[in-house]
Specification:
217 residues, alpha+beta, three-stranded antiparallel beta sheet, 48% helix, globular
Length: 217
């Protein structure tokens, strides 16, 4: 084989290798990203607040779990505390629109675990291209101040102590937290510091809420 032929063969092999690497990289980057399926068409109802889905819509999250919302479902944006609407606009506008509908429907039906429902809101925002920090900030807002259902609170005000051998738990059927600016500022500051994981921020929010519930009873 001539030198020219050998060089051509090597070039073709290199080109094939590059194509495979690009394809592999694209496949890896696509993993862990959810997708919305169906066209989201919302009909404004006469009360001016509620919306009705004109057709079925669903979200496949980053773990390949389906979150369907049937046609005729009514949503009102209440799952996102209104105090945060100034950050995102109305719940059904912009890049938050699709994720808000999924989140609103499952907060209303309570057919899945409350934490999974709040998490899918974050998942959906990231899938729609919302900036990561902005998406996490909104997630913490609904995690701390959005509705919860069928959950336990620890009847203890201590913070950072070892787990009790026999913790005293209280079951709460449903709870709609009150907005507290100082609590949100604390969570927001910790998030922006970059020194805490999302799980640690959830723990901090849980402690805030746990204290709020116990003080109100």
């Amino acid at each position: 084989m001539s030198n020219f032929a050998k060089a051509s063969t090597r070039m073709l092999q290199l080109a094939a290798c590059i194509i495979l690497m690009v394809h592999w990289t694209s496949s890896v980057s696509a993993e862990g990203v959810g997708r919305f399926e169906g066209e989201l068409v919302l009909k404004v109802l006469p009360d001016g607040r509620n919306m009705e889905l004109a057709g079925p819509f669903r979200y496949i999250d980053s773990h390949n779990v389906a979150w369907p919302v049937p046609a005729g479902s009514r949503v009102d944006g209440a799952s996102i505390p209104s105090v945060f609407w100034s950050l995102i606009g109305a719940p059904y506008t912009g890049k938050y629109r699709e994720a808000s509908v999924i989140h609103d429907y499952y907060c209303e039906t309570r057919s899945r675990h409350w934490k999974a429902v709040h998490r899918v809101f974050l998942d959906g925002m990231l899938a729609r291209g919302v900036n990561k920090l902005e998406a996490q900030l909104m997630y913490l807002a609904v995690y701390r101040f959005g509705p919860r259902w069928d959950f336990d609170v620890d009847a203890c005000f201590c913070k950072g102590c070892p787990s009790c051998a026999n913790p005293k738990l209280r079951r709460v059927a449903k709870y709609d937290p009150r907005y507290k600016s100082e609590d949100f500022e604390e969570l927001s500051g910790k998030l922006k510091s970059g020194q805490f994981t999302l799980e640690q921020l959830e723990d901090a929010a849980d402690y805030q809420l746990n204290t709020e519930i116990l003080k109100s009873r």
